[in-house]
Design brief:
The longest helix is centred in the middle third of the chain and has 40 residues, at 154-193. Helix 5 runs antiparallel to helix 10. The strands form nine sheets. A four-stranded antiparallel β-sheet has the order 2-10-7-8. Helices cover 33% and strands 21% of the residues. It has helices spanning 57-62, 111-118, 121-127, 141-146, 154-193, 257-262, 313-321, 323-328, 343-347, 356-395; strands at residues 5-7, 12-17, 33-36, 41-42, 45-46, 53-55, 73-76, 84-86, 95-96, 100-105, 131-133, 136-138, 148-150, 205-207, 212-216, 234-237, 254-255, 267-268, 273-276, 284-287, 295-297, 301-306, 333-334, 340-341, 350-352. It is elongated. It is of the alpha+beta class and 399 residues long. It has two domains: 5-152, DNA methylase specificity domains (Adenine-n6-DNA-methyltransferase TaqI, Chain A, domain 2), CATH 3.90.220.20; 204-353, Alpha-Beta Complex (Adenine-n6-DNA-methyltransferase TaqI, Chain A, domain 2). A hairpin with a 2-residue loop joins strand 4 (41-42) and strand 5. The chain contains ten helices and 25 strands.
Length: 399
């Protein structure tokens, strides 16, 4: 880190934040001025062309303090804290809500440099003292102004930003490549089997329950509570572990082997399809990995073990993750505040069942993609580590 640090408020002409129009009795409109939220800030870029709300010109003028100008640096200050981006020079008029802060750097502070610094390890360390309201973290404007930024000549700031931009672009390309592999898997499914909602190839239909040798929800209520969790033992599969086509090995929970013995009917094994029926998206599935030899599924995490004469895990998992299947299950979701799909309703969902040999061919192709994905993930991790190293050296004045 540079020896000289300067408070961010001394390097900015403006430090402000947005306002939600409805708090002032204003309404959103069908078109007009793009109104940004945290989800419109990603990868150092501002997305003002899709997934945005709009306000009319009158509301924009009323929300004077949250008008956004080209060259401003936006940073998220509520919920997801520290996500930053620079507003491009050709951007139209923009506005934002209170979860985004608007920083307008003086000429002595290069915007892209500030964006990278706000996402650095040192900035995160300073930001970690953010105040907390309920369960949502919030960073105040005064805390933003108090952040201490390295004082470097503008030319050096530009050079650092250019180096980090290039490194960031490599990470983005790797991320895009992995996303394309996901799209490829869906394309292979549709090419082989067609849209499951339309069933254009006329495959016979069966219910999900008829394709299962075992179809089971996890234990409810007092049978499995948070208080039963232990430091080690038998792994509990929870909703946060079920991703779209991948098992997410985070936020681990366990129960004792003694307690598991009482719940053994809920035993999950490698190769089982684990189905999330609550959350985002409501319907999603992954396959229990080989390294997880024994597990227990929690409520709202449905276990599907295929009847081997009719279906295999890869086909069913891919089928359940298709957007078309998600649309087929929309009428199955119930709930006033959080929609969930009951196991009973999911059991009765009718789906196309192509010949098993075609499902096996699909599995062969998917495993080839997974091999590429594994290689890509390793490369992505290496690129992330390299970027972090370059970033650390840059803000320490070593480059």
């Amino acid at each position: 880190m540079s020896d000289e640090l300067v408070r961010l408020e001394e390097l900015c002409d403006v430090i402000t934040k947005g306002t939600t129009p409805t708090t002032l009795g204003l309404k959103f409109s069908e078109s007009g001025i793009p109104f940004l939220r945290v989800q419109n800030i990603s990868g150092g870029k501002v997305n003002y062309e899709s997934d945005v709300l709009y306000i009319d010109k009158a509301a924009h003028e009323t929300l004077e303090r949250s008008k956004i100008c080209p060259g401003d640096v936006l940073v998220s200050i509520a919920g997801t804290i520290g996500r930053a981006a620079v507003v491009p020079r050709g951007a139209p008029e923009l506005n934002c809500n209170q979860a985004l802060a608007i920083l307008r750097p003086k000429s002595s502070l290069f915007g892209p440099f500030l964006r990278h610094w706000l996402e650095s390890t040192e900035a995160r360390r300073q930001i970690s003292g953010a105040t907390v309201t309920g369960t949502i973290s919030n960073l105040s404007l005064s805390q933003i102004g108090s952040l201490k930024v390295p004082s470097l000549p503008v030319e050096k700031q530009r050079r650092i930003a250019q180096i980090l931009d290039k490194a960031d672009a490599l990470r983005a390309k790797r991320h895009d490549a992995l996303a394309q592999l996901d799209a490829l898997a869906q394309s292979i499914f549709l090419d082989l089997f067609g849209d499951p909602a339309l069933n254009p190839l006329g495959w016979p239909r069966k219910t999900i329950g008829e394709l299962a040798a075992k179809f089971s929800d996890g234990p409810f209520g007092s049978n499995l509570k948070t208080s039963h969790y232990t430091e080690s033992g038998v792994r509990v599969v929870r909703l946060q572990n079920i991703g779209v086509g991948k098992f997410i090995d985070d936020d681990r929970a366990f129960i004792s082997e003694r307690h598991f013995a009482e719940l053994a009917k809920h035993e999950c094994k490698p190769g089982d399809v684990l189905i999330g029926t609550l959350g985002d998206p409501n319907l999603r599935a992954c396959i229990q990995p080989e390294w997880l030899k024994l597990a227990l599924n929690k409520a709202d995490c449905v276990q599907f073990r295929p009847e081997e004469r009719l279906a295999n895990a890869e086909y069913v998992c891919a089928l359940l993750n298709l957007p078309a299947t998600g649309r087929m299950t929309q009428d199955l979701a119930l709930g006033q505040t959080r929609l969930r799909i009951s196991m009973g309703r999911l059991r009765g969902l009718q789906v196309p069942v192509p010949p098993l040999e075609m499902q096996i061919e699909f599995t062969r192709r998917i495993k080839a993609i997974e091999k590429l994905r594994s290689s890509g993930v390793v490369s992505s991790i290496q690129l992330h580590d390299l970027f972090s190293s370059i970033q650390q050296r840059a803000f320490a004045g070593a480059i």
